[in-house]
Specification:
It is a single chain. The chain is globular. Helix 1 crosses helix 8, helix 4 packs antiparallel against helix 5 and helix 4 crosses helix 7. The longest helix is centred in the middle third of the chain and has 25 residues. By secondary structure, it is of the alpha/beta class.
Amino acid sequence: MKNKFIVLEGLEGSGKTTACKKIKKFLFKKNIKDVIIVRQPGSTYISEKIRKIIKFENKKEKLNIYSELLLLYSARLQLMENIIYPAFQKGKWIISDRHNLSSIAYQGGGQGLNQNLIHQLTKITDSFIKPDLTIFLDIDPKIGLKKAFLRGKLDRIEKKPINFFIKVRKFYLKYLSYQSKKIIINSNNNMNKVNKIIEKKICKWFKIPK
């Protein structure tokens, strides 16, 4: 079977990171062993530096929302050029914790930034490779933030007001309604149940033998 590029999307606390690991383990059991997991922003030296700037508050200087957007795409391009595209060309399966849709939903929907600008930036990353499947873990913002709080100290993004995440979720669902290569899963459920549903749907989507 040809290798695939799978993206996990969702709000804070939706279980993306756990699901990425479970998918890799599941694929391994299906004898698909050449799989890598990446996170966005991050997974390269430069991208991890950018991640720290975006995720953690700097009391000396406030991050401009357009600067945030451009930093996210800078980190994404570093990742696409240095890890995702080369690995995919070598036949590896890629599982990514977030991708372009995060910026469309968070910066476009949540922050209200110019969608034309975001789509122009997205075209650049899409020129490398587009996802074969986007899995959206749909969680109630209040439940997701509660889970994020239980994990430990909240980062700069997680501290945003609940209305921000309500807008982000609505934008996710609106944008996904136009997409064909997607699976939407209720992530309010127990994660074990969520992961079993993901495994079943991936088998069906990519026609992987049970």
